[in-house]
């Protein structure tokens, strides 16, 4: 059982992280007043998360351990994204977080370029990956990624997902859309990669074109969760739904932040519960691996509601 002092530090970090996100959210909400008056949808969004090695990891904006995220807006679109650096690279002296962080920072920058197409989030992943490959100092490693775009012009969300990060959309107490994991085999997701010289034949590397893409209309009050596998591997779908349906129609960023904090804390707690039959353990048993308990991992929760 975690000590009271550890729990206090965890909550303090979550609230500090959430507060910095909340300031940005409030600013975005103000900027969206004109859009709201024209009855165009926009996101009210917040973020919370934890690195797996909480006590030794240093907080950096846009990162939780090897996870990275971004959220940004233009006049006609709101964009959310998460990426999860593949941790196995640490065995080779490579920081997996650098790969995922570069992808997300580049995606965020490209959203504000004149040729950004809100109906093609897969282009953000493709162009970001190309920029990574062209760096003079190689950024080695690999990462999963999920990018979701709300096109305010037609009230439609467009998604691109590669690997086992993903999203979920809740309306009227039901899950109406969700991403599907892309796995080569158990616990080996699709991933964008740049291996060290001479190791290419030993490393899985998928093209951005292999990303799963979806589009669907949204309505006022819809709840959208974008998260890394640290959430989906540890929190059963029924528990996710119980939490998410409680914030349908919520446009108060403070209340939304409290929900994101609660969800991230739940995922972290279950990830270290050795007796809990987590979604990860259930999938392991389906693959003839005798496993019980959660899967300790970095946790990233990007939570949004659709407002007018």
Automatic annotation (TrEMBL):
<comment type="similarity">
    <text>Belongs to the PP2C family.</text>
</comment>
<dbReference type="Pfam" id="PF13672">
    <property type="entry name" value="PP2C_2"/>
</dbReference>
<dbReference type="InterPro" id="IPR039123">
    <property type="entry name" value="PPTC7"/>
</dbReference>
<dbReference type="InterPro" id="IPR036457">
    <property type="entry name" value="PPM-type-like_dom_sf"/>
</dbReference>
<dbReference type="GO" id="GO:0004722">
    <property type="term" value="F:protein serine/threonine phosphatase activity"/>
</dbReference>
<dbReference type="GO" id="GO:0046872">
    <property type="term" value="F:metal ion binding"/>
</dbReference>
<dbReference type="InterPro" id="IPR001932">
    <property type="entry name" value="PPM-type_phosphatase-like_dom"/>
</dbReference>
<protein>
    <recommendedName>
        <fullName>Protein phosphatase</fullName>
        <ecNumber>3.1.3.16</ecNumber>
    </recommendedName>
</protein>
<keyword id="KW-0479">Metal-binding</keyword>
<keyword id="KW-0460">Magnesium</keyword>
<keyword id="KW-0904">Protein phosphatase</keyword>
<feature type="domain" description="PPM-type phosphatase">
    <location>
        <begin position="47"/>
        <end position="306"/>
    </location>
</feature>
<keyword id="KW-0378">Hydrolase</keyword>
<keyword id="KW-0464">Manganese</keyword>
<dbReference type="GO" id="GO:0005739">
    <property type="term" value="C:mitochondrion"/>
</dbReference>
